[in-house]
Amino acid sequence: MRFLARTGFFARGLMYVVIGWIAVEIAFGKTSQQADRSGALQTLGRAPAGEIALWVLVVGFFGMAAWRLSQVLFGTSAPDRRKAIWSRLVNLGKAAVYVVLGYGVAGYAIGAGSPPSTDQQSVDLTATVMGHPGGRALIIVIGLVLIGVGLYLGYQAWRERFRDVMQLHELPPAGRRVVEWLGRVGGVARGLVFLVAGIFLIVAATEANPGQAKGIDSSLRELAAAPLGPWLLVLVAIGLIMFGLFSCCETRWRRV
Fold first, then answer.
1. Domain count within the chain
2. What residues contact 225, with CB distance under 8 A and at least 6 apart?
3. Could you tell me if residue 250 is inside a domain?
4. Tell me: the pLDDT tens digits for 54-109?
5. Which residues, 6 or more positions from 123, have their beta carbon under 8 angstroms from its beta carbon?
6. Average pLDDT taken over every residue of the chain
7. Which phi and psi (to 5°) does residue 77 adopt?
8. By the 8 A CB rule, do 200 and 159 touch?
9. Does residue 42 sit within a domain?
10. Is 150 a member of any domain?
């Protein structure tokens, strides 16, 4: 189970590094590739040893799902009952996400086609939900949840809460500072993407326009339209790469 969990952290890191690199290329106008899971899979699939990399992702994502499910079944070291229940629910949600990721990558690896982009998924889901009574209100709630998740992830990263689950004492001082910096900056960049996606969901609901919903790719592209232009996107892209590298560090020093 430890092996599966560590493989999962490596798979997550690899995915974020590739997405971040695509975002850098978008900022300089060098690619039209989607800066999300779909684009990352296509980029990896074209690379040397790309098929091996894809199957590493499959094993990693399903491995992470299995580890999260083990935490649902057997619990974690939460200090009280309320936090223990919340921890199980959070891990159940994470396990579901990684099952979906693993299934999508496996389908692409065997030639069943690339999974839809996060932009298309966001638009389709928003349109479906808004077609039901109370759908716009539900989309606003989901948007607020995404904003809350983004703020939470950014705050947790900035306060370096990841130190609680990392065995950084095994590193020399210089290495420890590098890992801490990767986790801090990378986590803030990751939270910013969730924050922007949540804002656009709320805009889509208030304007009754599902097309305003944004996935990871469009959220990143919208940053390029900000006053600082593509340089803001470059900074966020570098942050995502840093988070990917931090996730790879978790492969070795995360307490599992």
1. 1
2. none
3. yes
4. 999 999 999 999 999 998 988 766 667 788 888 889 899 999 999 999 998 999 88
5. 210, 211, 213
6. 86
7. -85, 50
8. no
9. no
10. yes
